[in-house]
Amino acid sequence: EIVMTQSPATLSVSPGERATLSCRASQSVSSNLAWYQQKPGQAPRLLIYGASTRATGIPARFSGSGSGTEFTLTISSLQSEDFAVYYCQQYNNWPPSHTFGQGTKLEIK
Amino acid sequence: QLQLQESGPGLVKPSETLSLTCTVSGGSISSSSYYWGWIRQPPGKGLEWIGSIYYSGSTYYNPSLKSRVTISVDTSKNQFSLKLSSVTAADTAVYYCANGTAMVTWGQGTLVTVSS
């Protein structure tokens, strides 16, 4: 089973600054990596898929990078609406599995 | 625009079977490009993938839940369903249905509490 580990657990950043979130896979997932944003009381929202492709309607300040086992989500200039919990997820092709990381809470500094 | 909606009992007794349905609108559940999945989130905790079903009917489950999970599709109703047997309090969670391998569209989620 592939284990996804996110760091840090909590990240405190000021509005307007850059945030960098990390995700590590216990074995290679190629580029089969997605990032989600979740706000309280809401379903997760897909931000990034294929490790670096923004989903429809996602602002350009969100970017993803990495492949294999190391991945990064960068938010270039934090807006007030970006403070939320972020999850990475691998979607391995075979056998199909979809493991989530434990999440990173992005909070206002 | 694809929309998903979960439905089912909000309270299930310990040792019983949790049953939920996800109704798909705005698209066909038989589309060859879609996986349909279930994900859950215990209160205050992270997301856990439960399992997925492909349009062909092939199913894939989280190994930690595999012995208790069944996911099925009813193409005539454009729905897919989750059954989780022998539930305990640890199965109390918000249950989401979603589509895709990277999960593009999610239902709003439904809270299921396991309690006597």
Provide a descriptive summary of the structure in words:
The complex is a heterodimer of chains A (109) and B (116). In chain A, a hairpin with a 2-residue loop joins β7 (62-67) and β8 (70-75). Chain A is an all-beta fold. Helix content of chain A is 0%, strand content 52%. In chain A, the strands form two sheets. In chain A, strands 2, 4, 5, 6, 9, 10 and 11 form a seven-stranded mixed sheet that branches. Chain A has a four-stranded antiparallel sheet with strand order 1-3-8-7, with no helix packed on it. Chain A starts with a strand and ends with a strand. The mean pLDDT of chain A is 95. Chain B is an all-beta fold and 116 residues long. Helices cover 0% and strands 50% of the residues of chain B. Chain B contains no helices and eleven strands. In chain B, the strands form two sheets. In chain B, strands 2, 4, 5, 6, 9, 10 and 11 form a seven-stranded mixed sheet that branches. A four-stranded antiparallel sheet of chain B has the order 1-3-8-7, with no helix packed on it. In chain B, a hairpin with a 4-residue loop joins β7 and β8. In chain B, 37% of the residues are buried.
Structural features:
heterodimer; A: 109 residues; mainly beta; seven-stranded mixed beta sheet; 52% strand; B: 116 residues; four-stranded antiparallel beta sheet; 50% strand; globular
Poorly predicted sequence stretches spanning 5 or more consecutive residues of chain A: none
Q: What is the strand content of chain B?
A: over 45%
C-alpha Rg of chain B, in Å?
13 Å
The topology string of helices and strands of chain A comes to EEEEEEEEEEE
Largest interface, by Cβ-Cβ below 8 angstroms: which chains and how many residues each?
A-B, 24 and 22 residues
Instruction: Provide mean pLDDT of chain B, rounded.
Output: 94
Q: Let me know the number of strands of chain B.
A: 11
List the total number of helices of chain A.
0
Overall pLDDT metric of chain A: 95
Would you list the SSEs of chain B in sequence order as H and E?
EEEEEEEEEEE
The oligomeric status of these chains comes to heterodimer
How would you sum up the global shape of chain B? globular
Helix content of chain A: under 10%
How many helix segments of chain B?
Answer: 0
Tell me the span between the first and last alpha carbons of chain A: 36 Å
Helix content of chain B: under 10%
Major sheet of chain A: size, sense and barrel closure?
7 strands, mixed
